[in-house]
Amino acid sequence: MADFYQNGIVTTLHNLSERPVEDLEKELVSFARRRPMALILPSLFSELEGEALPHIVSEISKVPYLSQVVIGLDRADKEQYKHALGFFDNLGQNHRILWNDGPRLKALDNELSELGLAPKELGKGRNVWYCMGYILATGTAESVALHDCDILTYDRSLLARLIYPVANPQFNYEFCKGYYARVANGKINGRVSRLLVTPMLRALKRVIGNTDYLEFMDSFRYPLAGEFSFRRDVLNDIRIPSDWGLEIGVLSEMHRNYSSNRLCQADIAKTYDHKHQDLSADNDAGGLSKMSIDITKAMFRKLATQGETFNMETFRSIKATYYRIALDFVETYHNDAVMNGLNLDIHNEEKAVELFAQNIMKAGESFLDNPMETPFIPSWNRVVSAMPNVLERLKDAVEQDYNECK
């Protein structure tokens, strides 16, 4: 059972009573009369053939309060898109699939590219951004949740607890970040959050001093969770990274746009497991290695916008401080695992710390070598200003794909 402790400057909504999902859903149905709700599912086609997504769709089909489900489909040809239409037909709610690799959406993406307004990288950030645009285009939902499609331990209570804080009309939250214990199959998981993000934030506090932003980020119990919810108005101004810095970038945007009392985090799952990335120690263009570089650069960029000045000496100090703090955390996590009868391989934990320490320097070098790098996808407000009919065209393209292939 969770405690009720409030840490940091962001409200934490705990799971204190294991409240039945049926009770939550009954309230959410009543909230939906005033605040219609939607769900975004960013998916690769390969996930339709995996173990997790069929069960996720089965669970979502039982959800009584959703008005809309928006699926972003990546890496799919026409036959695979047609297959996806049948796959998601099991959903009882109104739903549409954005066929991101289809000719209509690619043509729109090319037009936006010519204006310098399209996402520059393929991946989850781009997928989520177009789904957000579709939510704005349809104007159906007031409260929106987003979660990944590879959650092996999914049940619909996760969604209920995730969307509740932004759906309840008596709450004033604009954004909710999900969190959970990354423990499954007798092991403690979540290496990048445990061994990079938290010790990195503590190291930055020591080297450059505590700031409101670092205190804000260090308030989140699982900052890399791919599950969050928000009010629809959040979508107009948010600028998200198209790389692995998505989750850190979203939190940074929330810090920029809203007071901390309009933001919260909620305990959404007792157990959570999903597809695990390789460490990729020999390839910093993939796996957890690339993820660690992108996340670290995202932090450096945010701090630079607040007036912090970086050079290689600063990065060396950050790396050394991080390394010592992270090794201490390895011992902490090991002791926690032993007391709970779980496994934790100290050798592999320290190998990850060594890789992340090296990648702090790589991220720093990249940051200094590319001062004009702009990995953020433009806000939808800016895109609409440049192409006033873009949302209607996005909506029409999705409908035409659906009608042509259904």
TrEMBL record:
EC number per UniProt: 2.4.1.266
InterPro entries in the cross-refs: Nucleotide-diphossugar_trans
Superkingdom, natural source: Bacteria
Protein name: Glucosyl-3-phosphoglycerate synthase
Alphabetized UniProt keyword annotations: Glycosyltransferase, Transferase
Any GO MF annotation of the entry: glycosyltransferase activity
Record Gene3D superfamilies: Spore Coat Polysaccharide Biosynthesis Protein SpsA, Chain A
